[in-house]
Amino acid sequence: MPTNEILNSHSVSTLKKEISKTNIKGYSKMKKAEIISLMMKPEHSKRFSHIKMKDKTVIKKEPKKETPKKEEKPKAKLGESGIGKKRKRENKPIKKKVIDVAMPKKEPKKEPKKIPKITITEEEKPKQKVYSKGGKFFKPKEVKSKLPPIPKSNIKIRLPKKEEPKKEEPKKKEPKKKKEKEKTLSQIPSNLKKLWKEFVNERVGSFLEKYQLEEYESLKNMEERFRDLEIKKKDKTLRAKEKFNIINDIGDIVEDIKENIEDEPRFDKVYKILTPRIYARVKADLKEKKKEESKN
User: Fold this and answer.
1) Which of 32, 52, 223, 252 is most buried (most C-beta within 10 Å)?
2) Is residue 138 within a helix (H) or strand (E), and if so which, with residue range?
3) Which residue in 68, 38, 52, 60 sits closest to 5, CA to CA?
4) What is the pLDDT of residue 227?
5) Domain for residue 98, yes or no?
6) Residues 217, 201, 177, CA angle at the centre, nearest 5°?
7) pLDDT tens, 132-155?
């Protein structure tokens, strides 16, 4: 069996790790003294019988070695050994360094070559000869060829159509996404709107409509499930195992809401309005617990 001394020798984090291995709930925000009292309860103490006293090892620190101080030399006073006396600077001529560097040769500029101008003239066309006949001038007739004419072919050659350049369609501007407004859901009653905003921001960290819906639906689903389980529990045809499972499910739902109310009592009204059946059961359990404590 563990004792207070054994549990006190361990840190809070190790004690919480040991509790997390069991099915005990509601220990996350407890202090060390409260955790130890919870672990020392008769119904839980058997689970922690394996915990032993923590060994406290003391590490001895070695003394630091003293380093020998350097001997300080006596400082010379002004006037001794010529220190502090003003000295005239000797004006020594500054020697300039001379470096022999080969200068690059400048090449003479090349004159552009003169291109001779060429004048092109059209060739004179030969003049047609004009013959005179009886004092009248006439041109000679063109001689036609006596060869037969080339027959026309019936084959039609279809040339491919010229492809017109495709016109680039103007790019459509994408509509800007509208920012979601933080409006309270219509399902929430007016007397709960202010507290509902605090509740959602505490649970999720944002007041957007999608997060509000998630929280609202989860509470409503929990309430409906609790109601269905209570109806099933009253059925007399159920077997003992089925009835035991239903009672366990109801207990889990009640404990979740109970922990939330105990951790954050300012949101008591939210659970009262949105989950009235579970809230009534939680309050009844708390009253019974107080009566038992007052009797003891």
Assistant:
1) 223
2) strand 136-138
3) 52
4) 92
5) no
6) 80
7) 556 566 666 666 767 777 777 777
- Whether 234 is covered by a domain: the verdict is yes
Q: Catalogue the long-range contacts made by 284-289 (C-beta closer than 8 Å, 24 or more residues apart).
A: 285/254, 285/258, 286/258
Q: What is the pLDDT at residue 289?
A: 86
d(CA 215, CA 162): 65
Complete DSSP assignment for 10-26: S-HHHHHHHHHTTT--S
Integer Rg of the chain from CA: 54
Print the domain residue range for 238. Answer: 190-295
**pLDDT attached to residue 248:** 92
pLDDT for position 46: 75
What does pLDDT average to over the chain?
76
Q: Which residues contact 130 (CB under 8 A, 6 or more apart)?
A: 137, 138, 139
Query: Which contiguous run of DSSP H or E holds residue 212?
Result: helix 209-233
> Residue 3 in contact with residue 28, Cβ under 8 Å?
no
Bridge partner list, 136: 133
Classify residue 274: in a domain, yes or no: yes
pLDDT band at 36 (very low <50, low <70, confident <90, very high): confident
**198 falls within a domain:** yes
What type of residue is 93?
A: P
Query: Which residue shows structure tokens 């509208």?
Result: 178
Number of domains in the chain: 2
* Mean per-residue pLDDT, 152-174: 75
DSSP for 217-286, please give it: HHHHHHHHHHHHHHHHHT-TT--HHHHHHHHHHHHHHHHHHHHHHHH-GGGHHHHHHHSHHHHHHHHHHH
